[in-house]
Amino acid sequence: SLNVPAEPENEIEGSVEIQFELAANAEALQLDFREEAKKVINVNVNGTDIVPEIRDEHILIPASSLVVGPNQVSINFVAGDSSLNRNPEYLYTLFVPDRARTAFPLFDQPDLKANYTLRLSVPEGWTAMSNAPIAAVESAGAGKVYQFRRSDLISSYLFSFVAGRFEVVEREVNGRLMTMLHRETDDDKVARNVDDIFRLHAASLDWLEEYTGIQYPYQKFGFALIPAFQYGGMEHVGAIQYRASSLFLDESPSETRLLGRAGLIAHETAHMWFGNLVTMEWFNDVWTKEVFANFMAAKIVNPGFPEIDHDLNFLVRHYPRAYSVDRSRGANPIRQDLPNLNEAGQMYGAIIYNKAPIMMRQLEMILGEALFREGMREYLDKHAFANATWPALVSILDDKTDEDLLGWSEIWVNTPGRPEMIADVDDTTGRSTLQQHDPAGQDRVWPQIFSVASWHEGVRGDDFSLASRSPKTAFAVAGEPAGKTVLFNADGRGYGVFRTSFGILRHWDQLRDVEKGSTLINLYEDVLNQGQVDPSAYLAALGEIVIEEPNQLILNLALGQISRIYWTLVPAATRDEYAPDIEAQLWDAMQRQSDSSKRKIFFDAFADVAISRNRIRDVYEVWSGSRVIDDLPFSENDQIALARLLAIKMPDKAGEIFDAQLARTENPDNRRKLAFLAPSMSVDPDVRDRFFDSLKEEKNRAVESWVLEALENIHHPLRTNSSEKYILPSLELLQEIQITGDIFFPKRWLDVTLANHRTATAVHTVETFLAERPNYNAQLKMKILQSADMMFRANRLANADRARKQLR
Fold first, then answer.
1. CB 706 within 8 A of CB 686
2. In angstroms, what CA-CA distances link 185 with 151, 586, 665?
3. Are 157 and 110 in contact (CB under 8 A)?
4. 333 with 351: CB under 8 angstroms?
5. CA dihedral 223, 229, 233, 238 (to 10 degrees)
């Protein structure tokens, strides 16, 4: 029971009754509560008031107060605020992985599932949503009380409620009632999106029921769209939370945005079965719920987008992100050790969200779709409303194949990194071998299946599938070695570094879409791998590719690579040299587009790279409205994004730009965000210094997405000379951020801090920070090395470029 006042600065008073069966009462019992002892007002155990010991984030119930069998503990308390996300007109809980203990006393670990009954007192004009249906709403003084029914059996991190001034939309789709809460003030935006949002949820639910053979297992289905939500979504049972902008799309959204929304909805809905119904025993297996959700989401989305190459979509969504970690010195295995639940948040990242689905697809290829699905059904049936481990699933699947899945899993799941695939050709026979090289020197082999395409003197040969299960795999491609071009991983299903000849681009028009995606990913890895492909040459090639490329997925992949190479991987002098051509290519391509979503893609890319005075002026005129480009839609969010860019690129007008944007911004949540971002947009370095210093206080980091946008402004590539001084204090804050922030915040804090830097002094700052702290938290050290990887590589490329010039 919680009493929520209208003012965020006022305390929330509450009470909790905990009923449980105790097997033995020989020791004191620990309840989790990570708050000051003074916030525990009263404790009653089995009808008797006690004075418990409160220490180390626990309320200790003495053994003498407990009995074998049924027990009841009642506690009056003042709720902690750190996970209640309190805003002037709303709040929402976010308790994953172990943060329920920051709000109220409970048993806070995933294998102690419970039923929750919530009574929530809120101000007048507020509405509320929780895991279970509303049982009653009563007036109470200046507010009202929501009484919710008893929830289904769930883990503590899935308990949730949202309360505030929200609009309520209810729909019945395919006989299923759904409820949506939102705060969007643009009625046209709501009208454009609302039908698709409900339809996509219904389609996901129907697909999952059919695939799993299990009807939706909970009492209700609802979701809340929250401004500036920390994640894309969070799978609370019956009350999913989403970042509002991920579902309420702007006018003429790109294919990527539409696919992203569908995938996000499918992902969170899939969690109702994978993660919620069957939950990991401990957070070292948190990846299992995420891999199932991502893997199933890809299957769910496919039928709704028949025009999309879904192998390509899988490739571009997962591989670049997975490689960004696995190529680094901070690479971690999919399944990690977790000595203490307080580090569970650091289990999350690209390896579990992106590499694990790649692994799962290879696993499905070994078993075949029918046996894989049979195994999934058996797993869900056996562990419904309970907990399970990854070895439990492997055991089920291992019984269905002659393959050694335990050995397969040991390499793919329990070790980090990726193989390097090195081809060797016998000039006499034309026979070739593909060798898996383990960069860690451990002689590991990642058993996998992928396809190979080849050309001989410009003529395409027959594609074939290659099963690489040993250190060397023999294969044959027709034609003389001198006239051959070979593309490994043509179907985008393999995983590793596949060396690719730059000459493959001569065959670009002959490549299938997924082959184009695989080629770009392979070549980009070669750019980063000690400059095996020259960044400047590849940048020029990408500029030619994007002009004519019709596929939006490939286009976005190529434009993303252009941005990273342009801003970080080539010297500033090279960027200045290439800028006029790239600016002109993107502007001209934008004007030629008949499709408004593609026109928007090219304009956004143009605005990003524009550094010439006249080209920046073009962006300014579009933002200000003095130049109107037909079929180029601009939402309020687009205007704010442009204002942030222009304040950096037109420092003499930064104040004027901010004032104008604030005046035209109507959404109250966006006005609050702009006010927060204002000092990070300032041309005055002293103002930016004071803003950064303010982030050392936890209260100023409360809205994490705003903090990250502000840091993007501060560390923009055009500002790295002035922002490098923030690297060390940012690293020094990291441990506190890990304790006080949500699960993705530490890594994202590091990413926006380090990604655009490349100087020797920046590298030295990071290396020295770690060298001086040999006993530093291992998980956070991995995150630093992952985020700094691009900085390290950019610096090496810069050194190589200087060396080449000296040789000339």
1. no
2. 32, 33, 11
3. yes
4. yes
5. -30
Question: What 8-state DSSP symbol labels residue 594?
Answer: S
Task: State how far the Cα of 715 lies from the Cα of 727, in Å rounded to an integer.
Answer: 10
Q: How far is it, in rounded angstroms, from Cα 429 to Cα 435?
A: 18
CA atoms within 13 A on the CB side of 611: 19
Provide the Cα torsion 482, 488, 490, 496; round to 10°.
-160
**C-alpha to C-alpha distance for 549 and 519, rounded to whole angstroms:** 14
Helices (H), 593-699: 596-609, 613-624, 636-649, 654-664, 668-681, 685-694
Q: Is 449 helix (H, G, I), strand (E, B) or coil?
A: strand
Q: How far apart are CA 344 and CA 100, in angstroms?
A: 13
pLDDT tens for 28-38 read 999 999 999 99
In sequence order, what DSSP letters do the residues of 216-239 get, joined into one string?
Answer: --SS--EEEEETT-SSSEE--TT-
> 423 and 488 in contact (C-beta within 8 Å)?
yes
Euclidean distance between CA atoms 409 and 426, whole angstroms = 33
How far is it, in rounded angstroms, from Cα 197 to Cα 90?
22
> Six-digit token pair at 63?
């053994």
First to last CA, the chain: 75
Q: Are 736 and 763 contacting, i.e. CB atoms less than 8 angstroms apart?
A: no
DSSP secondary structure letters along 755-798: TT---HHHHHHHHHHHHT-TTS-HHHHHHHHHHHHHHHHHHHHH
| pLDDT band with cut points at 50, 70 and 90 for residue 480 | low
Q: In this structure, how many other beta carbons lie within 10 angstroms of the beta carbon of residue 225? A: 27
pLDDT of residue 801: 73
Element (H, E) at 575: helix 572-592
| CA angle 515–521–754, rounded 5-degree value | 160
Helix (H) or strand (E) holding 129: strand 127-130
Contacts of 541 (CB under 8 A, 6+ apart): 502, 505
Asked whether residue 702 carries a pLDDT value surpassing 90, the answer given is: yes
The pairing of strands 143-148 and 161-164 is unpaired
Whether the Cβ atoms of residue 661 and residue 674 lie closer than 8 Å to each other? yes
Contacts with 609 (C-beta within 8 Å, 6 or more apart), sequence order: 562, 563, 566, 567, 579, 582, 583, 586
Alpha helix ranges (H) inside 152-227 = 187-212
Q: Are the beta carbons of 523 and 538 closer than 8 angstroms?
A: yes
Alpha carbon distance 308, 304 (integer Å) = 9
Strands annotated E in 261-334: 278-280
DSSP string, 618-639: HHHHHHHTSS--TT----HHHH
Q: Whole-prediction pTM value? A: 0.94
- Cα 802-804-808 angle, rounded to 5 deg: 115
Residues ≥6 apart with Cβ < 8 Å to 621? 627
- Three-class SS state of 143: strand
Q: How far apart are CA 45 and CA 47, in angstroms?
A: 5
C-alpha to C-alpha distance for 95 and 111, rounded to whole angstroms? 15
Q: Give the integer Cα–Cα distance in Å for 446 and 418.
A: 8
pLDDT, tens only, 398-443: 999 999 999 999 999 999 999 999 988 766 666 788 899 999 999 9
Look-up of token digits 């009462």: 25
